[in-house]
Amino acid sequence: MTTDARVDVRVDRPPNPDGDHVLYWMVAARRARSSPALERALHHARTLKRPLLVLEALRLGYRWASVRLHQFVVQGMADNARAFADAGVRYHAYVEPEAGHGKGLLAALAQRAAVVVTDDFPCFFLPRMLDAATAQLSVRLEAVDGNGVLPLSAAPRAFTTAASFRRHLHKTLRPWLRQLPDPEPLRGYDLGWAEVPAEVASRWPHAGAWLSDPASVRSLPLDGLGAGPLVGGAVAGERAMEAFLEERLQRYPQRNHPDEDVASGLSPWLHFGHVSAAELVRRVLVREEWTEERLGPVTGSRAGWWGCSEAAESFLDEAITWRELGYVFCRHVPTYARFASLPEWARTTLAHHASDPRPEIYDLEELAAAGTDDPIWNAAQRQLLAEGRIHNYLRMLWGKGVLRWSASPEAAWERLIELNNRYALDGRNPNSYSGIGWVFGRFDRAWGPERPIFGKVRYMTSDSTRRKLRLKSYLERWRRR
Ligand SMILES: Cc1cc2nc3c(=O)[nH]c(=O)nc-3n(C[C@H](O)[C@H](O)[C@H](O)COP(=O)(O)OP(=O)(O)OC[C@H]3O[C@@H](n4cnc5c(N)ncnc54)[C@H](O)[C@@H]3O)c2cc1C
Questions:
Q1: pLDDT-based confidence at 224, cuts 50/70/90?
Q2: Average pLDDT, the chain
Q3: Do residues 274 and 234 make contact, with C-beta atoms less than 8 angstroms apart?
Q4: Is residue 340 predicted with pLDDT exceeding 90?
Q5: What is the pLDDT of residue 3?
Q6: Other residues' Cβ atoms within 10 Å of the Cβ of residue 402
Q7: Which position among 59, 161, 417, 456 has the lowest Cβ density within 10 Å, counted as fewest Cβ atoms?
């Protein structure tokens, strides 16, 4: 059962004894498996003997809304519709046909609810949306954190480096590894089919037509950025996870070489909650035949603590330490999206070099169109345009390029947010801001020698990347769009 450490009671009232259903308002963990919020909602449903009603809605009027993002989410809704129907649970998917049309839907379903449960996600517009729902609803409302393995409430502060967070994890993670979410929480559901009142269903109809043809979201008033080859949803996410675990995990230490392409590629599905990060960790540990006795003493060291293979250890370090570092940061630092949230040493050294001449200043359109003089950077940008993702290592180089070619570090910051969050499927995530922040020194240390433009912030160049990494076929593939 979902532990209390993951539950933030936003409207603290007893469940409404006259409620018709328990409402799960799915906003981040967009899946029917391995979900602490869904588990919590089912717990209430069983205790109160009320059917579960799941609402998954998709708004139009948020920043960067595009055909690319919408199609990915709607593909996920189609999978969820099947999964909940198979389990006998009523699922109401709603896709807003015009901005603002969905206003009132949550309140209408909550009015008949005994309890409302939702996801607690620490980034983008979701915390504001949750605050608005908290102010509006008069029924018990609980926000459940299914973001990672360590509950956000078990990290008492933001950490400034991965090393300090890793040390915290070594001290605190053990009990949470025993409480990974149930992969199949819907198994045995027998509480019946919740009713969506007729007036609600006619004003905010189930998104059936969109779900049968997700590409039709093209007709919505959205940024026309088209979908890429990746298919959204729990089914495609599961396939991608299985392929990674079967075929590439053991070669993960080679991941920096773009030609090897052995990283999981799971961040788009993780971002939209189609794949559960905790489930991914569980599957890695099962493959390693891991038991808790293998955990080593607290060292804070990147390797050796888990008692797993080298490949599994390095993957777990990215998927837990680095991933959750960003979530914890967003939870504790509400200004995470502002340049001013960077560490003082980094802002000072960047300010000191702000008037250094730039080798070139490209405008945002030139960058977006992969129109620089640097073939490696252009290749990375073309992959982003076409697929909505960038190879891990090259994403760092890509970020450093924008810093080098912008008039000021502040302008580079804004341009990176724009490029990353507009084109990347996994954008608008806590790790969008950790990755972008890292380009400017967040979670890193000062480096020498001091360089023009970068100052003491870590310096990376395409020349050294070309020397160090195998990337011939990557460049060939992304030479032209
Ligand atoms: C400029 C810049 C922008 C970035 N923007 C994003 C973003 O918008 N969304 C995003 O999820 N990540 C972002 N990252 C972090 C990282 O590049 C991606 O998480 C990773 O490349 C995703 O590929 P993967 O799923 O194959 O990762 P894998 O190597 O297979 O790792 C598995 C998972 O661990 C997590 N992870 C891996 N590396 C990191 C990292 N360095 N920091 C945080 N989490 C990590 C991700 O959830 C990832 O899916 C950014 C990094 C940089 C330098």
A1: confident
A2: 97
A3: yes
A4: yes
A5: 78
A6: 25
A7: 161
For 420-448, letters b (16+ CB in 10 Å) and e give bbbbbbbbbbbbbbbbbbbbbbbbbeeee
Mutate to test the pocket of ligand 1, among 431, 433, 436 (most ligand atoms within 8 A of CB): 431
Q: How many residues does the chain have?
A: 481
- For residue 256 and ligand 1, the question of a CB distance below 6 A is answered with no
pLDDT digits (tens, 9 = 90+) for 270-295: 999 999 999 999 999 999 999 999 99
Pocket test for ligand 1, best of 165, 242, 330, 426 (most atoms within 8 A of CB): 426
- 118: which 2 tokens? 């939702």
Domains along the chain with CATH numbers: 1-146 (3.40.50.620), 234-332 (1.25.40.80), 339-477 (1.10.579.10)
Ligand 1 centroid, distance to 43 Cα (angstroms): 33
Phi, psi of 29 (to 5 degrees): -85, 75
pTM for the model stands at 0.98
pLDDT of residue 1: 73
